[in-house]
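Cont'd.
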Amino acid sequence: MKDLIIKGGRIIDPTQGIDEVGNILIADGLIKSIGKGTSITPNAEVISAKGKVVCPGFIDLHCHLRQPGFENKETIATGTRAAARGGFTTVCCMPNTDPPLDNLPLVEYVKSVAEKEALVRMLPIGCITRGRKSEELADMAEMAAAGVVGFSDDGSYVKNARLMRRAMEYSLPLGLPVVEHCEDSDLAMDGQMNEGIIATRLGLCGIPAAAEEVAIARDIILAELTGARLHIAHVSTVGSVELIRQAKRRGIKVTAEVTPHHLTMTEERVLGYNTNAKVNPPLRTQADIDALIAGLKDGTIDIIASDHAPHTLNEKLCEFGMATSGISGLETALGSLMGLVHQGKLPLDLLISKLTSEPARILGNIHGKLGTLAVGALADITVFDPDAEWTVDVEKFASKGKNTPLNGEKLKGKVMMTIYGGRIVYREGNEKLSF
Amino acid sequence: MNKETLNHTQDASVWKHHHVLDVDDFSLAEIELVMQTTDAMKEVLSRPIKKVPTLRGKTVVTLFYEASTRTRGSFEVAAKNLSADVVNMTAQSSSISKGESLIDTLKTLEALGANIIVMRHNFSGAPYLAAKHSKANIINAGDGWHAHPTQALLDLYTIIKHKGKAEGLKVVIVGDIKHSRVAHSNIWCLSKMGVKVMLCGPPTLLPAGLDDTGEYFPQVAVETDIQRALKNADVVMELRLQKERMQSGLLPGLREFIGGYQLNRERLALAKPDAIVMHPGPVNEDIELTTDVLHGARSVVGEQVANGVAVRMAILYLLAGSKEL
């Protein structure tokens, strides 16, 4: 592997408190040196990063790569290519596949596919309950030994509180978080979008904020009871942010994530029965967005995760009530989030930490030193142009999922290069690189 | 036809619709044009031979994903009165039951020469999807909880026939507002006409967000007590109660609904002396309305059905862009 020198970029690494123009030398897949005086080695490929931001590769703790079972929506191969295009060097995939990832052989299968076909690091998440049925525990310890990074029945809430308590207790010696899709299914029943006047206007059954908040409240109490690590997926409401804030104050081991779409879009996107804006949890209101941003700023919300949920065209080209929920988000994450930076709502270094060092902290160290540009760390690096404007064109997506309400919209902020383990896996304008 | 019977306050050029999906995007002038055209259709219906050649050679398809008696029948009669060829399709008797998608079904109907498609669908918004993917004119004959524009127009027509004009009237809509497309379209249509709309029902059957600013939905008054709601009412419109509302925990039972929201003779006496009683049908007799009120002198339920044919003739006529009757 050729050595790489990324020259003259604005290096931002929250783990080292670095925000300065400099060079990075990469050799043998590792970061060899970082700073102003980095020497140029012969034979190294020099990449000019002038005017660009150079930061640790993004880490996505929540995406759906759909393999096995839904290969028409996405595969590990296409999903990790989408990740590379989005600047992500590590993606954690949710186990709501078919069959669901609830046992050792399935985890091994997914890992073996990833070894052959993944373009970036893919870390699986295993189920909490067998078959995601909320009836009995999945083989959590065996899956932990096989390398899952957490447990989740994502897409469904673990309805049975007793079982959730047991799962949390059982997870303690495994050292892994329980990642919960917090949604009370009775309160959310038949729901199609956020409850409120727009749902009333469209004649769609609403999902109240309470459906999420009730579920979060229960899990926080169980986390307090068990001492387990609870990670709350895709937080979307004012009330949820406040519940998590209070829990953190009380010292409960809870972490939380928010998606780019919940940070940037409101329920108005659904007007006109736009099935591409149908997502679960639903897009909410501006007040919710404001609370989510405040939560990111004060540390209540630890990370940003894509909840990349690819679907086929047919699954969205239908009646709103029949459409599947989800947004294909890996390739628009940075561009839409940079909008918040340009509007002055989110500092750039904070955004980067929420995509790099913070998710790395939740993952722990077992998969190597991630989310940092420290000397000796794996050379997972994202180079992006914070000011480049581009128009979202789903036909150019590497993801099979073209389902995004952002198609045709202008975003400001573009991934220029993604380096995974010292190898360039994406270079803007050269799509063929992703072998 | 005899042009003198038309009250030419609105010129046909105000009509801008290619599809009729809801009344929320109707201008006041368009609503008035529909009322006026309905008058003309009433005249046609009063003739010994109730048939005009307006839609000769055109094909109207009724595409119903849900059961319906009066709406489907009303559209069929209306289309036939205008000399259209009418094809009736239901979900049960077509490829829809074999899993054909709505868009594919529409393409098929288009290929078969459908000019106007009248559709009813259990999912809110389905006619909007249809309008995006079909060259034919789409008329929404009811979609989910969302809208039923021709019902709202025929209700308005019926109100105007009795009250002279709509502006300034107080219309109380009673019952299951939340799940009622009839209520939703009526709220839009009546609000546009300057009617004071009051919704009355148990909190579980009222839609969410009514306290909002009015940017996305007309602002309406809400009153959970029927006795207070009926005060000074010019029109009382009861809605059909679906039996499944009890199963889903929205109501304890019929007895409590009847106790709280049935329109009976005593309650009707609380409204204005000349108040009229409406219901979109089909009526659950002795649930929403007592039999004596339903068949009483103040009830215009039968007229609503009759006016339905004329209003639908008017809509078909306007959509076809025809200049002759």
